[in-house]
């Protein structure tokens, strides 16, 4: 994984995300994968951006809306808001807001914001493509084995870790 400051070629955001950092910088994240070692290297490479850093990526899916795909986990971004934009298809974003499930259905061109620290999950209905602009510092994931993330044993947030 490496960050490239001035990419002269077209990049597919499905494969090669962009990191937005301090000073309005935009860097292509070459070799990005969801492998824990790559994620750790990415986090270290952009650590100086702190809570202001954002990862911009497109996700494609062919979900049946029952929790498959992106919806197989809950996630939370304690350092900042996340913007989710439906590019094609249909997606339901479910948020756990103070113990109450809030669902937002998005169609093409529609967007929503997942506020900082709010647990949320994404379910795609049929062939769908979304754009996510995510504050990645301290992102936490939990399996979606129950209907609400607050029902799981607590995973400490970054500031609570030993």
How is this fold's topology laid out?
Elements lengths: L1 E3 L13 E4 L3 E6 L5 H10 L8 E11 L8 E4 L5 E16 L2 E7 L4 E4 L4 E16 L5 E4 L19
Antiparallel strand pairs: 1-3, 2-3, 2-4, 4-9, 5-10, 6-7, 6-8, 6-9
What does this structure look like?
The protein has one helix and ten strands. It is mainly beta and 162 residues long. Strands 1, 2, 3, 4, 6, 7, 8 and 9 form an eight-stranded antiparallel beta sheet that branches. The radius of gyration is 16 Å and the shape is globular. The chain starts with a strand and ends in a 19-residue tail after the last strand. The C terminus is likely disordered.
Radius of gyration: 16 Å
Major sheet: size, sense and barrel closure? 8 strands, antiparallel
Helix content: under 10%
Number of strands: 10
Give the amount of beta strand, in percent: over 45%
Unreliable stretches, pLDDT < 50, 5 or more residues? 65-69, 152-162
End-to-end C-alpha gap: 28 Å
Number of helices: 1
Indicate the mean pLDDT. Answer: 85
Order of helices and strands: EEEHEEEEEEE
Classify the secondary structure makeup into a structural class. Answer: mainly beta
Principal-axes geometry comes out as: globular
Properties at a glance:
1 helix; single chain; mainly beta; 8-stranded antiparallel beta sheet; 162 residues; two-stranded antiparallel sheet
């Amino acid at each position: 994984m490496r960050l490239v400051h001035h990419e002269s070629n077209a990049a597919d955001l499905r494969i090669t995300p962009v990191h937005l950092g301090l000073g309005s910088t935009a860097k292509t994240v070459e070799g990005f994968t969801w492998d824990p070692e790559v994620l750790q290297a990415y986090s270290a490479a952009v650590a100086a951006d702190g809570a202001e850093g954002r990862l911009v990526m497109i996700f494609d899916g062919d979900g049946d809306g029952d929790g498959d795909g992106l919806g197989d986990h809950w996630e939370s971004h304690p350092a900042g808001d996340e913007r989710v934009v439906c590019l094609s298809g249909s997606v339901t974003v479910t948020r756990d807001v103070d113990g109450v499930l809030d669902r937002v259905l998005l169609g093409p061109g529609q967007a929503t914001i997942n506020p900082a620290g709010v647990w949320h999950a994404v379910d795609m209905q049929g062939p769908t493509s979304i754009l996510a602009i995510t504050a990645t510092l301290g992102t936490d994931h939990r399996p979606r084995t129950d209907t609400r993330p607050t029902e799981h044993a607590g995973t400490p947030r970054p500031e609570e870790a030993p």
